[in-house]
Amino acid sequence: MHLLAIGGSDGGISAALRARELDPAADVTVMLADAYPNFSICGIPYHVSGDVPDWHDLAHRSRDDLQALGIRLLTDTTARRIDVAAHQVTATDAGGRELAVDYDRLVVATGAVPVRPPVAGLDRLGPADGVHLLHTMGDTHQVMATLASRRPERAVVVGAGYIGLEMAEALTARGIAVTVLEALPHVLPTLDGPLGDLVAGELAGHGVDVRTATSVTEVGTDGSRLAVRATPTTAGGGLGAPLELQAELVLVVTGVTPDTALARSAGLPVTPEGAVRVDRHMATDLPDVYAAGDCVLTHHQLLGETYLPLGTTAHKQGRIAGENALGGQRRFEGSLGTQVVKVFDLVAARTGIRDDQAAPAGFEPRTVASVADDHKAYYPGATTVHVRTTGDLATGRLLGVQMVGTIASAVHKRVDTAATAIHAGLTVDQLNDLDLSYTPPLGSPWDVLQAAAQRWTAETRTPSAPAPAATTTTD
Amino acid sequence: MHLLAIGGSDGGISAALRARELDPAADVTVMLADAYPNFSICGIPYHVSGDVPDWHDLAHRSRDDLQALGIRLLTDTTARRIDVAAHQVTATDAGGRELAVDYDRLVVATGAVPVRPPVAGLDRLGPADGVHLLHTMGDTHQVMATLASRRPERAVVVGAGYIGLEMAEALTARGIAVTVLEALPHVLPTLDGPLGDLVAGELAGHGVDVRTATSVTEVGTDGSRLAVRATPTTAGGGLGAPLELQAELVLVVTGVTPDTALARSAGLPVTPEGAVRVDRHMATDLPDVYAAGDCVLTHHQLLGETYLPLGTTAHKQGRIAGENALGGQRRFEGSLGTQVVKVFDLVAARTGIRDDQAAPAGFEPRTVASVADDHKAYYPGATTVHVRTTGDLATGRLLGVQMVGTIASAVHKRVDTAATAIHAGLTVDQLNDLDLSYTPPLGSPWDVLQAAAQRWTAETRTPSAPAPAATTTTD
């Protein structure tokens, strides 16, 4: 049995590890186009910030670790063709030499590539000019080279998603003046606006210049500098006065798209957006070919099939693909889009879906905002947790929870309780039945999530049982 | 409709609040024997430590808050008799005057009283001598008076449960040299020994003298000081050399027992231990009488009926009693014994059951220890979380999780994810399906709980599918 995984990041490596774990006799190979197997891509901002001085430390496991686990690595080896009938992958190595690798089972885990938005100038400017996309360790090395060679005083980050904000913090930590440009009205567009605005305030409080509702139109050069031109959208929906920003570094982080040219050429069915279609067992339509990670269409527990590239999901899908490639029957139980990001001293987390996702999916969503102290106010250091709870008015089912709080408020793990409750199909009201932990320095007798549930229930009560004045029983 | 609650702590106040919330027209009275309605008893150690200088701040709500919510308070009023047929409670007020209060629905929430262990001397020594039990605000004031008057340099805490350890920390914070005596072999006997030992190490590291397997035999006086005599048990089970400790303060915190003399006298059925029997709707066997909190027998999701006094449970039960007293049909879904305690810089948390509880309940338990970093090791500040995972070998069901980690490791909320998973009836292996949050500064792609689940699964694998060498797929 020879399992071949194409892709050296979360999906491919997880498949390989699981296969070796379940069958130490299995022959397992991972083929990857670069030299960085099993690197923690999510850790890149912390190398740039200086928190992780040596980039080698970003590896979940070293090459030696992987080989000691019995995994054969073909690094700097780019898969070119999959011959499904012959069970063979043709590739080229670093020297351009062609090689063929036979397999019994294949896991396609080619990941994603960054989106290059349709902005004038991005077609001709690149790392040598201080203009970077950021997705791989190779990209990271190029950013670090720009930091060393150009010693930028000012940087523009295009895109205020998770990576954009982490990079804004990282560059600020290096003493660089950062402007973040976001076309949408709020930062962290995967959170509701009021929570995004809290995060924007945190950025501003640390000196980051945040411009939302501002679309980049052009990136050009201005002598030795870069010039970024952008146009704000006014509150009325019109266009504001164009602005031009000078910088020595421009980072474009506006999302990713599946990297599936290879899969398509092999005849694997893909969605219009290019994601490989897999079943709940991570099997593709072609025999002995599985796929996992950022290159596939992901099953979402509340939305059905969707494209939702996340490292945690890639780990799970890869593990399942590796297990099933060896004859297992493990099913991927689905994502909830759980995400968390640290932005300076705040943490923003979410799980499940929001109104704008829930309504098209057939739910009757209602989102209720609430705030609660992370622990009893009498104990020193209590801070406010901001919660938005989304439930289905038709069934009462919990659909989603979003939270913003300080690092110490543990919103990253509070949201996990919500994720588990959604996974279990609980109603919002049933959150009150959960036996959650309490001690005054770390919580309240009714947890933040339960206080939020009580507020949701009070605000959504039907007119026949009107909600009283602000008399919740939350402590 | 007049709802009367007897008891001014979590159970009684929660019932009153819920009744007023659901029906602002309801007439609601809380009768309590002392002057401290709605105080956070769990916060007492933080007043003693000095973290909460003003004891008034320990109130979840002030007397004015409660009255503004439409709750009538009868403080310093001790209920003496319940006449169930007449729907009347007879009481005496602070001046010894008798009063009668009619009710339509009654909630008995008389709580618990501290156990006075059979130790020579405890029958004759009391607060005036520097010997204290600790359960109420009244007890707290007496402890504070002893601290002011005797200015103790040394204290002995008898009992290494949650309150004992919190008080050991509090007294240490005041500069007092503290010895903790525990008859059982480990501190925090509600955790498995290896985790209790970690907490004992934390105590010792902060200068607390911890003596486990040591039974107190006598508390006496030695001039102006107190003398505590105790006998260690040797590893072989024999008795070691008796020891005598001098101190100016002795705190006896060895658990509580239900305070149900009143309930018994009214004909309410109680268990041999004295806990009031209630159904899942918090109704007693007598008409229009509900009961909640530390005075009742509690439904445990895995163990059935058990005595398990906890503030969180009292809040839930009181809320349900208040709802059902007004005609509701809410069911108490059961406790999981979830508990957490902060001891200096460590946090110990548990939910569900351990081997010694599970086996008698008909499970085939197996507990597996594991450790994991609270977040990616490459990001600064990672610390180790110690986990013990208990599952049922027959069904794979998750039965319990215990964790010890630093405050920053958020074990208090990680254990909530486990509690929610147990509540939902998940197997240990199904923890791997949960979509939990991840960002390198705060977690790992496989959460600590999932790493623990993978270790449990690997160690309990049947011989037909042998566990491999240490090749887990946890990052």
Query: Could you name the CATH homologous superfamily of the largest domain in chain A?
Result: FAD/NAD(P)-binding domain
Question: Within the largest sheet of chain A, what's the order of strands?
Answer: 3-2-1-7-18
Number of strands of chain A: 25
- Structural class call of chain A reads alpha/beta
The biggest beta sheet of chain A is recorded as: 5 strands, parallel
Mean pLDDT of chain A: 96
CATH architecture of the largest domain in chain A: 3-Layer(bba) Sandwich
Q: What is the CATH first-level class name of the largest domain in chain A?
A: Alpha Beta
Q: Output the radius of gyration of chain A.
A: 24 Å
Describe this structure in words.
The structure is a homodimer. Chain A is an alpha/beta fold and about 475 residues long. Chain A has three domains: about 1-40 and about 50-110 and about 255-325, FAD/NAD(P)-binding domain (3-Layer(bba) Sandwich), CATH 3.50.50.60; about 125-250, FAD/NAD(P)-binding domain (3-Layer(bba) Sandwich); about 345-460, FAD/NAD(P)-binding domain, CATH 3.50.50. Helix content of chain A is about 25%, strand content about 25%. In chain A, β1, α1 and β2 form a beta-alpha-beta unit. The first copy, chain A, starts with a strand and ends in a 16-residue tail after the last helix. In chain A, about 55% of the residues are buried. Chains A and B meet through α1, α8, β21, β22 and α10 of A and α1, α8, β21, β22 and α10 of B.
